[in-house]
Amino acid sequence: MGAGPTVAASLGAAAAVGVTLRSAAAVGVLPRLLSTVVLSAAGFAATHHFIPRLAPLLAKAGLVGKDINKKGTPAGDTPVPEALGLVAATIYLIVLCLLHGARGGGSRAVTDLEAAVRPAAVVGIELYTAALSSVTFMILLGFADDVLDLKWRYKLALPLVAALPLLVYYDGPTTIVIPRPVREALGVGRLLPLGVLYHVYMALLSIFCTNAINIYAGINGLEAGQSVIIAAFVLAHNAMNVDPTGPVDDALGLRANHLFSIDLVMPFAACTLGLLAHNWFPSAVFVGDTFCYFAGMTFAMAAILGHYSETLLLLFIPQLINFVYSLPQLVGIVPCPRHRLPRYNRETKKLEGIASHLNLVNLVLLMTGPMTEQHLCVLLLAFQVVCCTAGLLLRRFAILYIL
Transmembrane ranges (predicted)? Predict the structure, then answer.
């Protein structure tokens, strides 16, 4: 992995962890967060260590691919081990199990601080287990996709199947906050109960998050890179709610939910950084659909159980743009090629956008002109940072003036 991207990704993740620890110290839960940091660091080290050692085994089993963006060059003809997201995902699950054990395990998945909160606001053992089951199920189905190369109609159904454990056991709040202008215009209250429709919303969010990362891909480092950035901003959002600066309805409940989210997201960010180190340009391994599904489901579970799903969508702005722009091809209105990648120009050694390939990667190239794969990835990740920053600022504006 290049020194610049390595330093940038590490500094971004470290900054998010630092903000989180400072908030934890302010409210007296620093020991809890330190255990999360230590186990997350171990997850990074394990992922970084095992990927190059397990990659040959996956290649031997036939899980390899060609780097189409280097077609016509020696690098484009060299088989690259893929589905290495399986290693990061497996280590992530091990870290979560160890973290659960550090919390006391057994009959509860929350701390004494969280136990003081009313039951409806706390993520208990049932929902903790359901979230873990959904992520595990999604990893299994993602690996099945890597092996079997499933059709798109099946890809859309997989997240719904994986989310079933959460949908079945979820018994938390099913209300949403109505923005102030809307409730003033309609004369309705601040909260709107959705009932069973909230379960439908959770299912749709799971489907969107998993497939949004899966279709915003195709160049070295993009899938893992965007996931690290989103995770860093999720941690920043969690930190702001662990120690909120403004008045809130239930500070303890808010804190408990976001502490749970930190437990899910911080190990994910660490394991993904370990994967990114080997997936950056030129990629020594490919992450595979396993990682994309695993990443999306982890974000969805953390947001649903942390009760910030609307904020998560604000951090998915590039993915939303890519989804809307890709929709005509995804639903079959426009013919959809198997690989909607840019064209590699062997003379200039740059990627060129293709107007008929409807995704954000090609759109950026059409707007900026040809550029190298590495520079394109850096630009797309910088756009992710800008959008996530704008999303958190918009969320802050909504809290102060709209909600």
Answer: 83-102, 122-144, 156-178, 224-240, 260-277, 284-306, 312-334, 378-398
Q: CA 202, CA 172: separation in Å to the nearest integer? A: 12
pLDDT value for 17: 75
pLDDT value of position 204:
93
DSSP 8-state code for residue 213: H
Q: Picking from 3-17, 114-128, 213-227, 367-381, which range would have the lowest pLDDT averaged per residue?
A: 114-128
Segment holding 192, helix H or strand E: strand 191-193
Q: What is the pLDDT of residues 340-360, one digit of tens each?
A: 999 999 999 999 999 999 999
**Residue 124 confidence (pLDDT):** 67
Measure the CA–CA gap between 401 and 385, rounded to whole angstroms: 24
* Dihedral sign of CA atoms 319, 321, 324, 329 in order: negative
Q: Read off φ and ψ for residue 345, nearest 5 degrees.
A: -95, 110
**What 3-state class would DSSP assign to 123?**
coil
Helix, strand or coil, per DSSP, at residue 243? coil
Instruction: With a cut of 70, say whether residue 11 has pLDDT above it.
Output: no
Burial grade of 57 (CB within 10 A; 0-12, 13-18, 19 or more):
exposed
* All residues at 6 or more sequence positions from 230 whose CB lies less than 8 Å from its CB, including other chains: 299, 315, 316, 384, 388
Question: Residue 262: which region, alpha, beta or left (left: phi > 0; alpha: psi -120 to 50)?
Answer: alpha
- Contacts of residue 9, defined as CB under 8 A and 6 or more positions apart, other chains included, come to 225, 228, 273, 276
| Residue of 328, 331, 315 whose CA lies nearest to 384 | 315
Pick the closest to residue 26 from 242, 246, 330 (CA basis).
Answer: 242
